[in-house]
Amino acid sequence: MIEVAGLSFAYRTASGIVRALDKVSLRIPSRAVTAIMGPSGCGKSTLLAILAGYERGQEGLYLYDGLDVFALNRRELSAFRKRETGMIFQNYNLFDQMTVHENLSLAVRYRHGQGNREFLDHCLKRVHLEDYGPRLAGELSGGERQRVAIARCLAGEVRTVLADEPTGALDPGNREAVLAELKQLAESGRTVIIATHDEKAARRADVIIRMEEGHVGSIEDPEGKTAHPGHDHGLAFPAAGSRAGYR
Fold first, then answer.
1. In what order do the strands lie in the sheet with 191-196?
2. Of 45, 73, 164, 206, which has fewest CB within 10 angstroms of its CB?
Protein backbone atom coordinates (compact mmCIF):
# COMPACT_ATOMS: atom_id res chain seq x y z
CA MET A 1 0.00 0.00 0.00
CA ILE A 2 1.24 3.46 -0.94
CA GLU A 3 0.06 6.32 1.27
CA VAL A 4 0.76 10.05 1.23
CA ALA A 5 -0.53 12.61 3.73
CA GLY A 6 -0.28 16.39 3.57
CA LEU A 7 2.13 16.14 0.63
CA SER A 8 3.27 19.49 -0.77
CA PHE A 9 5.85 20.43 -3.40
CA ALA A 10 6.67 23.84 -4.91
CA TYR A 11 9.28 25.15 -7.31
CA ARG A 12 10.43 28.56 -8.47
CA THR A 13 10.02 29.84 -12.03
CA ALA A 14 10.84 33.18 -13.65
CA SER A 15 7.27 34.30 -12.95
CA GLY A 16 7.20 33.18 -9.31
CA ILE A 17 6.53 30.16 -7.08
CA VAL A 18 4.48 27.29 -8.52
CA ARG A 19 2.82 25.05 -5.94
CA ALA A 20 2.66 21.78 -7.88
CA LEU A 21 1.19 19.79 -4.96
CA ASP A 22 -0.73 21.32 -2.08
CA LYS A 23 -1.37 19.08 0.96
CA VAL A 24 -2.30 15.99 -1.05
CA SER A 25 -3.53 12.96 0.91
CA LEU A 26 -4.44 9.65 -0.71
CA ARG A 27 -3.91 5.91 -0.74
CA ILE A 28 -2.98 3.81 -3.75
CA PRO A 29 -3.91 0.12 -3.61
CA SER A 30 -1.40 -2.64 -4.25
CA ARG A 31 -1.71 -5.05 -7.19
CA ALA A 32 -4.04 -2.74 -9.13
CA VAL A 33 -3.88 -0.07 -11.83
CA THR A 34 -4.37 3.48 -10.56
CA ALA A 35 -4.72 6.37 -13.02
CA ILE A 36 -3.75 9.87 -11.94
CA MET A 37 -5.86 11.99 -14.25
CA GLY A 38 -5.79 15.69 -15.07
CA PRO A 39 -4.68 18.42 -17.48
CA SER A 40 -1.11 19.62 -17.90
CA GLY A 41 0.08 21.50 -14.83
CA CYS A 42 -2.28 19.81 -12.37
CA GLY A 43 0.56 18.11 -10.45
CA LYS A 44 0.20 14.53 -11.67
CA SER A 45 3.75 14.19 -13.06
CA THR A 46 5.22 15.73 -9.91
CA LEU A 47 3.27 13.27 -7.79
CA LEU A 48 4.50 10.40 -9.95
CA ALA A 49 8.14 11.52 -9.60
CA ILE A 50 7.79 11.64 -5.81
CA LEU A 51 6.18 8.20 -5.65
CA ALA A 52 9.03 6.83 -7.79
CA GLY A 53 11.62 8.27 -5.41
CA TYR A 54 13.09 10.80 -7.86
CA GLU A 55 11.85 13.82 -5.90
CA ARG A 56 11.19 14.44 -2.21
CA GLY A 57 8.10 16.15 -0.90
CA GLN A 58 8.84 19.38 0.91
CA GLU A 59 6.03 18.79 3.39
CA GLY A 60 4.04 15.74 4.39
CA LEU A 61 4.52 12.00 4.67
CA TYR A 62 5.07 9.22 2.12
CA LEU A 63 4.73 5.65 3.32
CA TYR A 64 5.53 2.70 1.08
CA ASP A 65 4.33 -0.48 2.78
CA GLY A 66 5.03 1.30 6.07
CA LEU A 67 8.46 2.56 4.98
CA ASP A 68 8.97 6.29 5.59
CA VAL A 69 10.47 7.19 2.21
CA PHE A 70 11.22 10.82 3.09
CA ALA A 71 13.36 9.64 6.02
CA LEU A 72 15.78 7.79 3.71
CA ASN A 73 19.16 9.33 3.02
CA ARG A 74 20.48 9.62 -0.53
CA ARG A 75 22.09 6.16 -0.59
CA GLU A 76 19.03 4.51 0.96
CA LEU A 77 16.73 6.29 -1.49
CA SER A 78 18.81 5.02 -4.40
CA ALA A 79 18.52 1.47 -3.05
CA PHE A 80 14.76 1.96 -2.69
CA ARG A 81 14.43 2.99 -6.35
CA LYS A 82 16.54 0.07 -7.53
CA ARG A 83 14.53 -2.51 -5.63
CA GLU A 84 11.01 -1.14 -5.75
CA THR A 85 10.15 1.22 -8.63
CA GLY A 86 10.40 1.30 -12.41
CA MET A 87 9.46 4.18 -14.71
CA ILE A 88 7.85 4.11 -18.14
CA PHE A 89 7.95 7.40 -20.09
CA GLN A 90 6.04 8.81 -23.04
CA ASN A 91 9.29 9.02 -25.03
CA TYR A 92 10.30 5.43 -24.02
CA ASN A 93 13.82 6.33 -22.73
CA LEU A 94 15.47 3.49 -24.64
CA PHE A 95 18.97 3.58 -26.15
CA ASP A 96 18.18 3.53 -29.87
CA GLN A 97 21.62 2.29 -30.98
CA MET A 98 21.49 -0.66 -28.57
CA THR A 99 19.60 -3.88 -29.12
CA VAL A 100 16.46 -4.70 -27.19
CA HIS A 101 18.44 -7.32 -25.24
CA GLU A 102 21.06 -4.72 -24.34
CA ASN A 103 18.42 -2.25 -23.15
CA LEU A 104 16.91 -4.90 -20.89
CA SER A 105 20.33 -5.99 -19.66
CA LEU A 106 21.00 -2.47 -18.39
CA ALA A 107 17.92 -2.66 -16.15
CA VAL A 108 19.03 -6.04 -14.78
CA ARG A 109 22.58 -4.87 -14.07
CA TYR A 110 21.33 -1.64 -12.49
CA ARG A 111 19.22 -3.52 -9.98
CA HIS A 112 20.75 -6.95 -9.56
CA GLY A 113 24.15 -7.10 -11.25
CA GLN A 114 23.31 -10.28 -13.14
CA GLY A 115 21.05 -11.49 -15.94
CA ASN A 116 20.93 -14.06 -18.71
CA ARG A 117 19.47 -14.25 -22.20
CA GLU A 118 16.81 -16.79 -21.20
CA PHE A 119 15.44 -14.45 -18.53
CA LEU A 120 15.45 -11.47 -20.93
CA ASP A 121 13.60 -13.50 -23.56
CA HIS A 122 11.06 -14.49 -20.93
CA CYS A 123 10.43 -10.80 -20.17
CA LEU A 124 10.01 -10.07 -23.88
CA LYS A 125 7.63 -12.98 -24.28
CA ARG A 126 5.45 -11.48 -21.56
CA VAL A 127 4.90 -8.45 -23.83
CA HIS A 128 4.63 -10.52 -27.03
CA LEU A 129 8.03 -9.47 -28.40
CA GLU A 130 9.93 -12.73 -27.91
CA ASP A 131 11.74 -12.48 -31.29
CA TYR A 132 12.78 -8.84 -30.92
CA GLY A 133 15.83 -9.22 -28.66
CA PRO A 134 18.52 -8.80 -31.36
CA ARG A 135 16.83 -5.81 -33.03
CA LEU A 136 17.97 -2.23 -32.47
CA ALA A 137 15.53 -0.29 -30.29
CA GLY A 138 15.59 2.61 -32.77
CA GLU A 139 14.16 0.37 -35.49
CA LEU A 140 10.97 -0.43 -33.58
CA SER A 141 7.57 1.26 -33.83
CA GLY A 142 6.29 3.44 -31.00
CA GLY A 143 4.04 0.69 -29.66
CA GLU A 144 6.86 -1.87 -29.78
CA ARG A 145 9.25 0.48 -28.00
CA GLN A 146 6.74 1.13 -25.25
CA ARG A 147 6.27 -2.60 -24.76
CA VAL A 148 10.06 -2.95 -24.51
CA ALA A 149 9.93 -0.30 -21.77
CA ILE A 150 7.38 -2.47 -19.95
CA ALA A 151 9.63 -5.51 -20.40
CA ARG A 152 12.46 -3.44 -18.90
CA CYS A 153 10.40 -3.08 -15.71
CA LEU A 154 9.82 -6.84 -15.75
CA ALA A 155 13.57 -7.41 -16.13
CA GLY A 156 14.23 -5.15 -13.15
CA GLU A 157 11.71 -7.17 -11.10
CA VAL A 158 10.32 -4.06 -9.47
CA ARG A 159 7.13 -4.16 -7.41
CA THR A 160 5.75 -0.77 -8.48
CA VAL A 161 5.57 0.44 -12.09
CA LEU A 162 4.95 4.15 -12.71
CA ALA A 163 4.05 5.32 -16.21
CA ASP A 164 4.04 8.99 -17.24
CA GLU A 165 1.70 9.46 -20.24
CA PRO A 166 2.61 5.97 -21.55
CA THR A 167 0.08 6.13 -24.41
CA GLY A 168 0.48 9.81 -25.31
CA ALA A 169 2.52 9.17 -28.48
CA LEU A 170 0.67 6.04 -29.63
CA ASP A 171 -2.09 5.37 -32.14
CA PRO A 172 -5.35 3.81 -30.83
CA GLY A 173 -4.35 0.22 -31.59
CA ASN A 174 -0.98 0.43 -29.86
CA ARG A 175 -2.55 2.39 -26.99
CA GLU A 176 -4.90 -0.51 -26.28
CA ALA A 177 -2.05 -3.03 -26.48
CA VAL A 178 0.09 -1.08 -24.00
CA LEU A 179 -2.81 -0.57 -21.58
CA ALA A 180 -3.53 -4.31 -21.73
CA GLU A 181 0.12 -5.04 -20.88
CA LEU A 182 -0.01 -2.66 -17.91
CA LYS A 183 -3.19 -4.35 -16.71
CA GLN A 184 -1.42 -7.72 -16.89
CA LEU A 185 1.41 -6.31 -14.77
CA ALA A 186 -1.11 -5.56 -12.02
CA GLU A 187 -2.70 -8.99 -12.39
CA SER A 188 0.75 -10.53 -11.91
CA GLY A 189 1.07 -8.81 -8.52
CA ARG A 190 2.60 -5.42 -9.30
CA THR A 191 1.26 -2.00 -8.39
CA VAL A 192 0.80 0.13 -11.53
CA ILE A 193 0.34 3.92 -11.44
CA ILE A 194 -0.36 5.85 -14.64
CA ALA A 195 -0.29 9.63 -15.03
CA THR A 196 -2.46 10.60 -18.00
CA HIS A 197 -4.77 13.22 -19.47
CA ASP A 198 -6.43 10.56 -21.65
CA GLU A 199 -9.93 9.75 -20.36
CA LYS A 200 -10.08 6.47 -22.30
CA ALA A 201 -6.79 5.33 -20.81
CA ALA A 202 -7.92 6.29 -17.31
CA ARG A 203 -11.11 4.25 -17.70
CA ARG A 204 -8.99 1.11 -18.07
CA ALA A 205 -7.70 1.57 -14.51
CA ASP A 206 -9.15 0.15 -11.29
CA VAL A 207 -9.01 3.53 -9.53
CA ILE A 208 -9.01 7.05 -11.00
CA ILE A 209 -7.53 9.94 -9.01
CA ARG A 210 -8.48 13.31 -10.53
CA MET A 211 -6.02 16.13 -9.87
CA GLU A 212 -6.98 19.80 -9.94
CA GLU A 213 -4.31 22.50 -9.56
CA GLY A 214 -2.20 20.54 -7.09
CA HIS A 215 -5.13 19.05 -5.18
CA VAL A 216 -7.01 15.77 -5.35
CA GLY A 217 -10.40 16.67 -6.79
CA SER A 218 -11.96 13.22 -6.51
CA ILE A 219 -11.19 9.50 -6.40
CA GLU A 220 -13.42 7.34 -8.60
CA ASP A 221 -13.92 3.81 -9.85
CA PRO A 222 -13.93 3.15 -13.64
CA GLU A 223 -17.70 3.71 -13.77
CA GLY A 224 -17.28 7.26 -12.48
CA LYS A 225 -18.61 6.58 -8.99
CA THR A 226 -16.87 8.83 -6.47
CA ALA A 227 -15.09 6.84 -3.80
CA HIS A 228 -13.84 9.82 -1.81
CA PRO A 229 -15.21 13.35 -2.26
CA GLY A 230 -13.27 16.59 -2.48
CA HIS A 231 -9.84 17.48 -1.12
CA ASP A 232 -10.00 15.93 2.36
CA HIS A 233 -10.48 12.18 2.24
CA GLY A 234 -10.39 11.64 5.98
CA LEU A 235 -7.54 9.18 5.78
CA ALA A 236 -5.93 7.94 8.99
CA PHE A 237 -2.22 7.27 8.53
CA PRO A 238 0.07 5.16 10.73
CA ALA A 239 3.27 6.49 12.24
CA ALA A 240 6.35 6.66 10.05
CA GLY A 241 7.75 3.22 9.30
CA SER A 242 11.14 1.55 9.42
CA ARG A 243 14.04 2.24 7.07
CA ALA A 244 15.37 -1.30 7.43
CA GLY A 245 16.45 -3.03 4.23
CA TYR A 246 17.61 0.08 2.35
CA ARG A 247 20.87 0.84 4.10
1. 85-89, 160-164, 191-196, 33-37, 207-212, 215-220, 226-229
2. 73
pLDDT 10s digits, 135-179: 999 999 988 998 898 898 888 889 999 999 888 888 888 888 889
List, in sequence order, every beta strand (DSSP E) within the chain. 2-13, 16-28, 33-37, 59-64, 67-68, 85-89, 160-164, 191-196, 207-212, 215-220, 226-229
Average pLDDT, the chain: 86
Which residues of the chain, if any, have pLDDT below 70?
Answer: 111-115, 223-247
Nearest to 238 by CA among 62, 110, 97: 62
Residue 129 CB coordination number (10 Å): 20
Domains by residue range for the chain, with CATH: 30-56+73-229 (3.40.50.300)
CA pair distance 18, 10, nearest whole angstrom: 5
> In this structure, are strands 2-13 and 191-196 parallel, antiparallel, or unpaired?
unpaired
Question: Are 43 and 213 a contacting pair, CB within 8 Å?
Answer: yes
DSSP 38-56: --TTSSHHHHHHHHHTSS-
